[in-house]
Structure formats: C-alpha cells, structure tokens
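On clarity, I found the account of how folds are encoded harder to follow than it need be. For illustration, here is how one protein appears when written out as sequence plus structure tokens.
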Amino acid sequence: MPTHDIPVIEGERPLERPRGARRPRRRRLSPPAAVDAGGLGLSGLAAAVVAAVALVVFAIQAPALVRALFLNPDIASMPHLATLLEGAPGDRVVTLSNAPEYESLTILRATAGWGIHRLLWQALPFAMAGAGLLVLARSVWTTWGRWAAATAVATLAVTSEGLRMTLFGINAHAFSLFSVIVLGAVLVAFARRPPRSAVTWVLSGLALVALVAPGTPDLLLLLTGVAPFALAGVATWLLSGDATHRRLAAFTVIVSGAATVLGRLFAAHMRADGIAPTPTFGVQFATTDRLQHNFSLLLDGLAYLGGAHTFGEKVTVSSLLGVVAGGAVVAGFVAGLWFTFTRLHAYAGDRRLARRERPERIAFIVFWGAALGLSVASYLASDLPQGPGTGRYLVPAFYAVAVLLPALAVGSRRARAYVAAGVLAFGVVVLGTHVVEGPEEFGGGPTAAEVSAVHAFVQRNGASVGYAGYQDAEVLTWGTRAALQVFPVYAGFGCPMESCRFPIMTVSSWYRERPGTRSFVVEHPPASFTQLDMLPRGTGKPVAAGQFGRLTVYVFDHDVARDLEAAPAPAQPAAP
C-alpha cells in the first residue's frame, strides 16, 4: 500500500513498506502547545496579577482567617464531635445532621489520636482547596489556553466570604468539591489522550472510586460530579464519532456506578456502627408554591457567593460594592448556562461541527455545564434553600461558571474583553473588602475573649462538663482544646421542657448523668434553636454564676444531664 511518508521518484513505482515494518510514530504536540487560544494578552496578564495579589492577601490573613472560621459552630461541630466521640461506650448512638458527614467524620476519627491533629484539621481544607485550584488550572490551560486558565484562577483565588465557609471548613461539601474537580480533570485528560494500556484504565478507575465513593452519600456530589462524569463520557463518544472514546464512555459509567454502590455500602457500615443522620433533615422536593421563593433565594445565594450581604440592608458604599460583586456572579451564571446550551445545541444539530471539535473540549463543556445545570435545578426544586447561607450548595456551580466563562470568550476578542472586565471588577471588589475589613467572623458564637473568660471561670469553680446552645457548645469545646467538654442543648421548637438534648451532631452518651460531677450551663440570649436562654427545670440553685460579654454561666454541684429531656424532632429545623 502506498505510504505518504516515503518519497516517490517520478517514473517509478512508489516504494512499499516491507511487511512487518512499523509505521513511524507521529509526533504529538504537548498539551499547552496544542491549544489555539493564544497568549495571555493584557487582560490575561491583569487576571494573573489579580490572582497573585489574592494569594498574597490570603497568605497574610490566613492565621486570622483560621481563628475566625473556628468561631463558627458549623465548622467547629465536626471537630467537636470527633474529639468527644473518643472513649464513648460501645452502645452510644451518634446522630449527624445529614449523610455527607460520614466522610469527614471518618477522616477526623482516623487522625484524632495524632499529636498534630488540630493543625491537620485546620490545614487539610486549605491544602485541598489549593490542590483543587492547581488541578483545575491545569485542566483549563490544556483545554482552552493560558488566558482562560489565568481568568479562571483569578475568579476563584479571591475567595469571597461566602466561598470561604465551604472551602476552608471541615465539612462534607469541601471534600465533595475536591472530588468534583478531580473527576472533571481526569475526564478531560482522558478525552484528550485516551490511555493505551488497560492497566492504566483499571488503576485510574480504582483510584477515582476510592476517592469519590466515601462522598457519594452526599447528593451534591452525585448531582454535580458523579452524574456529569458519566454523562460527559458518553456524550464525548457520541458527539466526537471517534471509536477510541468508546472506552472513555465505558470507563466513566463504570466508575460512576461503582462509586455510587460502594458509597451506599459505606453508609450502611456507618449505620451499623451506630452513626446515622437524623431523619429530620432529609431532602425533599419543593412544593409548587415554594418555587418562586426558591428562585429569589437562588439570586440571594449567588450574591452571597459573590461576597454580597446587601439584601434588606442599608445602602452604603460597602453594600453597593457588594451589589457589584454579587451582580457579576449572577450575570456569570446566566452566561454560563447560555453558553452550555448554545454550544451543545450546535453540536447536536451539526455532527460535522462536533467531530471537528477537539474531544477534550466537548468533555469539558458537557461536564461543567451539567454540573452547573443540575446544581441550579436541584436547588430550585428542593426544600434546601433557607437563606443566603444555603448558597453553599451552589459552590460547585460557581466553580463551573468560573471555568465556562473563559471557554465562552476564547474565540472572540469582544467576549474576552467583557469576561475580563467582569472578572477584574469582581476581583477588585472582593479583594478590597478583604483588605479593608479583614477576615469576617462567621456565625454568632462566642468570641475568643468570651471563650477564654468562660474557661477561666468554670475551672476556678471545679467544673469541666457543661451544656449550652449549639452556637456556643461547639466553639467553647474547640476554643479550650476540649479542656471544657460542652454539649449542645436547646429550648422551644418542640422541646417540652426548658432544655432538651440537641437532636443533631451529638453522641447519646454525652447526656448520661455523671454522679458526683459538677457541671455548668451557658445562657446566650436571645433564645433560638441554636442559643439557650433559660436553665433546665429542676437544676436547683447554682453554686456560682458569672457574666462574660453576651454569655451568662451557671455552675451546679451536680451533672445537669439528669434534668434534660430526650430530644424530639425540632419544629423548625435548620438547613443541614
């Protein structure tokens, strides 16, 4: 058979390759060189500068940020639970808020005995966020070019206050987000250059299943990571028309299915060990009359991720800047959804167009477009939205927008200018807020000064076991390095007595009476589901009392556990 790489001399027959001879291997361009998106340009350079400044500001503020984060009870609750779970009797029952916390609790329990466990628990979310950003930057660079990578990194590196709660706290959604990023990066890499060895497919699949399976009880990971992974693999094969991507489709489907099944087995194992979510916080579909309300909360949550806390607040310079940042995020979501729909519609309508497109770009668009669409759809159709704070369920969608917008703009100078302007405005506003206001103290728990004062007072009066509202118990225990063991209680919201055992993030043995043990109770008005404003009935007269800022502490000559009622289902549960 004539060959194209062997010269033909005029008047002679073309040479033929000897039978058995190997065809010369074609040189492959390195991934960055294969991208036709050009260099950084001025806007890309500006985005790179924003990202660099963001990293410098972050490094300077990191110690204060860690302290501020762990003053939030939602972030301190998992370390609180893991610390006080050690040494609990075998018949104890652990009640979580929802299933995703299986993964984070397992990691914390495995490391609780290490001498550096507190440092590890604080550093792990930061390390995962940094590694995730690097993986994502490489994936965008190899698919869309340097400009797109710089723009995406600038958007994510500034980390608004709304993002920091999810990224840097020990909770299931931070681990889930990292899994989503890794799934997307592996998919794009294999679409660009499918492995030739079956061993590579198998080992990669096993590694992905091991990473993702523990988090699949989290519906957020299933909807924004596992499902898009399988969908994008199949779509890449069908749209590209390349038989070599049939293996990719099979790989993504098998990995997604295996991770989901093993995740269910992992959840069953945790339940058998007496660790289970409370049924109170199961996710339900929203009623039709709630859909409009959810849409307004969607806008609220998107603005929250942009660093805006402006709805219903007084108009100030700070709130106006928040509107700019929040508006940029909302506009980005709309543009991301539009880009995904129009591009996939074009591929479906013109198969030749799809086959001319590089497979990794198809995989990229389908994966992150599905993550964005499923995230927004599930948010609107469920009962999860409760306020701006539940915008944390939209963080994977925020990441999807951050990588899809540069992809949208790669082929057009005008689009690049618009995207660059939006990213720069967003970055300048958020970074300016960080510099002027410093790290925000999340939540309404006790301050570091209040923690120190309560610790000293209680120890002077011979007590170390106490009870407080959820807002205070988690922070007091973490802030005193568990020198004070404070267990959450609540009043009202279905509690038939003045105080009941808190129904979530607890261990049943915490509320068993310890004879001959002094204890204390912390009041923190005003009363709410997470703040206690009355003493349990029958506690008697305290032996000591003190006022420390917003907190009033009462010390008793017995364990107040005997005066607590078992927790019924709260009448107005908080969002998980």
Remarks:
- Confidence is low (pLDDT under 50) at residues 1-17, 24-38, 569-576.
